[in-house]
Write a structure and sequence with these properties.
This protein is mainly beta and 101 residues long. The protein is built from no helices and 12 strands. Helix content is 0%, strand content 57%.
Length: 101
Amino acid sequence: MIVQGDVFFVRIQNIPGESKKVTRDERGFIIAEGEATGHAHVIHDDIELYEKDSVLFIKTEKTVEVRHEEHHPVTLDPGIWKVGIVREYDPFLEEIRMVKD
C-alpha cells in the first residue's frame, strides 16, 4: 500500500468488469479532490483511469508520479492500482466519514 495524505493506493490484479473509463481534464487525471483546500491528487502522466461504484482504478504501463500541493509526490510502479480514501470514525456522532484533505 502507498499513502499520500488521505488517499491510498493498493495494487490489485484486475480492473472490475463494467468499470467506466475516466478522461483527463486540463489539470491531468484527478485522483481525489480536497474538500477543504481545493487541492487535488493528480497524475500528469499517461495512464488509464477507470471508475466503478465511486471507486477509481489506475492502470499504468510505466512508473508514474501522483502529485499534490501539500504532500510529497508518490510513485506508482507499472500495474493496476485501486484508489481508496482514508475514513475516520466519530464516536460522538456515531458515524464514519471520509477524512477531509
